[in-house]
Target: 7-carboxy-7-deazaguanine synthase
Amino acid sequence: MEDFYTIQGEGAHTGRPAYFIRTAGCDVNCWWCDVQESWDESKHPEVKVGDIVKRAKESGAEFAVITGGEPLLHDLDPLTMRLKQEGLQTHIETSGSSPLSGYLDWITLSPKRFKKPLEDIFPYVDELKVVVLKNKDIEWAEKNAAKCPEGTRLLLQPEWDTPSSMDLIVEYVKEHPEWGISLQTHKFLGVR
Ligand code: SF4
Model:
């Protein structure tokens, strides 16, 4: 769908410059999704892996973030292999609802209740980032955390347009210090 050099706005690597690669196509359909234009893959042109990798390399970024849409609807082996050959680390942000592929250095699982993650991804998760609107989402976060390896970064992220979620998260994290808070800082900074 698009690729561009920016700042990682959320999660464990917040604030680091990163080359973002946004794949087209998503079958999860979160109602609060802020990239709904990504859902229909047929509305976006096919792009050569080599061209994306060239732009990523030229950006000077240390790592690429593959996001979507839902990136695991694509076989990520060729893209991630080429990125690594060029010396970039490879990160992914995924709902985990399609089979895992790719040579990945950092996996951020953002599981959605609408289309649940496949079990196979859990042993490989580095960061669990759950978007929270209400209490039910915290229960969902804990259910997923129980399946992640020890040492996984556990993050709760308020849904941008649901201010009440912030109080909920703050109180929860104070009582459950194994969790941290992720904010969409790119929205404060005005970068995409
Ligand atoms: S998984 Fe991501 S891209 Fe897909 S609908 Fe949900 S928020 Fe949007």
Remarks:
- The beta strands are 2-7, 17-22, 63-67, 89-94, 106-109, 127-132, 153-158, 179-181.
- Helices lie at 49-59, 77-85, 135-145, 164-175, 185-189.
